[in-house]
Structure formats: C-alpha cells, structure tokens
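Notebook entry, structure prediction.
Reason for the run: the old model in the group folder had no record of what sequence produced it. Starting over properly, with the input documented here first.
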Amino acid sequence: MPSTSDNLNMKHTGDLAPVSASKRHIFLDALRGFALLGVCLANYPEFSLYTFQPDSVAAAMPSATLDGWVKFFMLLFVDGKFYTLFSLLFGIGFSIIISHAAERGADGFRIFYRRMIILALIGCTHLMLIWSGDILLLYAVLGMLLPLFRNVSDRKILTVAAILLLLPILIDGVCEKAGIFLAAYPYGKWWEYATMYGINEDNFGTWLRDAMNYGDVFKFLVQGAWERMYEFVDGNRYFKVFGLFLIGFVVGRHKVYADLKTHAKLLRKVALWGGIIGIPLSVVYAVSGMGGHPWGNGLHAFLYAVSVYPLGFAYAALLGLFCIRHSNLVIWKIFATPGRMALTNYISQSVIGMFLFYGIGFALGASMGLGETELIALGVFTFQILCSISWLKVFRFGPLEWIWRMLTYGKWLPLLRSDK
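New structure, fully documented this time:
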C-alpha cells in the first residue's frame, strides 16, 4: 500500500484508467463468478415470493417435503457464505484500486471516493426501482470508511475485524435479555408505508405477483426499502460487512490472489480449519434456522459467526488450492467471465427475477416451491454465463461496468475490444 505522503504528492489523473484485461487475475474473477452463483441461489427465493409465504401455504405445496430439505441445505451451504465472499472481494478490490492509482501517479483516494459515490447511486436506484434486497448501497457507504485503515498494521486491522464480526453476538444477546428493539424506527416506518399502500400480512406474499403495473411494484419497493433498513439494523449487517471488508483489505494488501502457490500453506490451514469448524456448526445453524431460532437470537448470532465465516473462508481457500493444482481447466474461464461483469450480472439477476415472478412479467411468483425456485436460479446463472461470454468476445467491459468506470475516471473509455 502507498504511504500517506505518496498519495498526497500525486499530481495528476490524466493517465488513470481501469486495469487492463492482461493485468486481471483470473482467480479473482472466477471467485466473483462463484459468489454470483451463490447470491443468485440465495436471492431467488425472495424473487419467487417463496420466502414471503406463510408457513401454512409452504407446507401445503406438493413439494413441501423436498422444499424442507432444500431449505436445510441452503442454510447449511449457502446462507451468508457467498455474501462473505463478496465482502472479502470488495476489500481486496479496494487494495487493487489504490495500488493501481499509485502506479499511475494519481490520487487514488479521490478516485476511490468517486467510485463509491457512483456505486451508492447505482445501489440506491436498484433499491428504490428494482429490488428491495439491494446490498450495493450499504457496500458503498461502508466502503468510504476503508481509507481510514490504509496505514494501520495488519494485526490491528484484523483485531478490529474480529471485534466487528463478533459484536453482533453481544448486541443480540443484550437486546434479547433487556427486551430492547434497536430496529424499532425502521420497522415502524416499514409498516407505516405498507399500511398506507394497502399492503398487509394477508397480501404481502402475493402483492408483487398480482401487480399488473409498475406503480404497484413501486409501492412495494418503497415500503421494502424501509424493510431493508430494518434488516440491516436488526441483523447488525453493517458490523459484519465492514469486518469482512477489512479482512479482504489485508488479503489484498499481501496480494494473496496473485501468487497462490506462495500462500498455499495458509490456504490449506484456512480450508482445513474452516471446514472442520464451519461444517458441523453450520449443521447446528441450519437446525436453528429451520426451527425459527428456538435457542434465542443471541445464540443464533453466535452460530452464524462460528459457522458462516469459517465456511465462507474455506470456500475461497479451497478454490485457491484447486486453482494451484488445476489452473488450466476451462471451468476457471467459465466462472471468470460472469465475474468480470459482476455488477451487470448482479443487477440483471434482479431484472430477470422481476419479469419472471412479478405480475408485470410472467407472474410466476407464489406458485412454486423452493426446489423449483433454485432450479430456475441455476438456469438464470447459466444464461448469464452464456451472455457474458458472448458480450466479452466483442466488448472490453460489461455495460454497467463501462458506465461506472467512465464516471469514475472522468473520461471516455472505448467499449469495443481493440482486436475487433
């Protein structure tokens, strides 16, 4: 990482540009692609409205028994693990942006803040106009805090990260014992707007399926934005995300992704202990999730911390070890291609979900079980792989990546590949 004085003495931004394709690390792109798959699997139960169905409705579906097993395995292997990967990748990306800016003699932090502001605008648009489950706005806001740690030692950064990841356990435990509801304000605003628009518990799970115009969808999105704020506060999401950002920043600072062989010993330790700790505790976490947190929110928060993070880290380490041994397999290019267009694919998953499941599209929502929903999610991701491969044969960036980068660097960037 550049020192403070290095950044203060940088004089120009004219030569600043995105990392070229030749300088990209296929492992990072493949890891983003892998994370995109997991996020699609995690999000589509909400798009299909399955998550919003009352227990009695879900239990009455012909696929109820299969859906129960699918839900269990989703809690075991998917829930939280892929957002863990995305958050780590964000921290790694910050270190790359700053080091790249330093090489070009530009003010990396000014570029970084501009990048975060634009991402916040994209996230806000996504949240208010497309899907209430947006994560980009939170990423952008928390990302603005990362430069505060640019000159902090690894040990101190990892200590802060550990505190942030464990803090939700204390908060949930204390709130549960004291009867404190920290998310009372966003919860109240959520139902205030829902009531204003005629959205209630009876029609909550079918409103979007029955929405025949975008105006009705927008009403749901407005109250859904407050619901999202409630989820962030109630789930202590900001502590969790920023803690993972910091760990990713340390990984990026040491360029682990660029020389996997040198760090093979570390990767083996992370994979081994992440699996040993994460898998059995994820089973207990899944049982708790299936039962509606029967042992209390404090213990469920503890189970989340000791299962989701270790297993998420193990996923990344296992993929790194696999890449060391089998770096020439076509699977890396298959996952790396959508990973190079992660922003476009993340947003397009929402757009596709909207038109598949809402009344303004095919109105398939609230009509299928969880197993069928996840098959559709796999189909959507496969479709995105094919589209990404076709797009990047002609263009240098994904469409949203292209716009984001031009606004970030303040200049026109050619979209067509130079070899075309």
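Summary: DSSP finds 18 helices and no strands in the chain.
The old model has been moved to the deprecated folder.
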